[in-house]
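From the pipeline queue, job 12 of 40. The input is one protein chain; the requested action is below.

Action: predict structure.
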Amino acid sequence: KVYQKILNSNTPFSVSYLIPNKIKTKSYTVGVTAKNKLGNYGYKILDYSVNAIPTSLDLNLEIASYNPGEDIKFNIKLLDQAGDLMQENINVNLLNLDNKVVGSSIIATGTNSSIKLPIQAEPGNWKLTVSAFGLEDNAVLTVKQYKHLEAHLEGTEVVVNNTGNVQVKGILPIEAGDLIESKDINLDVGESKRIKLENVFPPGSYQVKLPTLGTVFDNVILAAKKSSLFGGLGKLTGNVTKNVNSTSKKGLLFVALIILGGSLIYLVLGRRKNKESNNFRVQTNDRAYMLGKK
């Protein structure tokens, strides 16, 4: 824009220029030229700059629905008075169903960014918010229901964990070689269940599969359960003792134990006698017979 004014030598020159609201952010120059009737002139350049003023803040989600543990992808645009992008670092907050901040990050505007959902985020509408320079914006995102079980092996126990965000209830098939069994599963979020394979399959070496989870355990060896005569006897006497609560019953218990002990001694001595008898016959078979005949 050009301004002209005729002045005498003693009159000062001044002019006012209103900068537009949406002027671009950059440096500008003002040129001043003065000349008289004799052709003399002078020229002066004045420089000034227009600073960026944050005017608009926009938060945009790449998609609106996510599973727990996924990255929420978004970008933030901070615009100046002319609608041009500004590069600034601003704070982003992730709010759960109760509007509590559960995640926060400093993000550069004008770039593609992300923030991670918690692994067990509850299903429902969550919110992402940004604020800076007196401006703010938010975006609502949906956390989907996510049923997910994970399993690992500890010795011969399968440990099943509910790593989703909803309760899991149903049947879990378990394959060991050609054998197929199943277990009932009823796990709240974050709960786990231990399955002892010795109680499910007979002794042996197996490849154990959980087909619905896509999990395989190789070379799982299941040993036979150990048992003994005296172990069973201890269990029996323990159960009997547990039911004794009077002096007369204790006396009967004492007699019963003596009878039981005598029976065991009789069985042991009887086996030893039979063994010695057999040994005698073997040692004196042919030679004793020949001597008898003579």
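Job complete. The chain has three helices and 17 strands.
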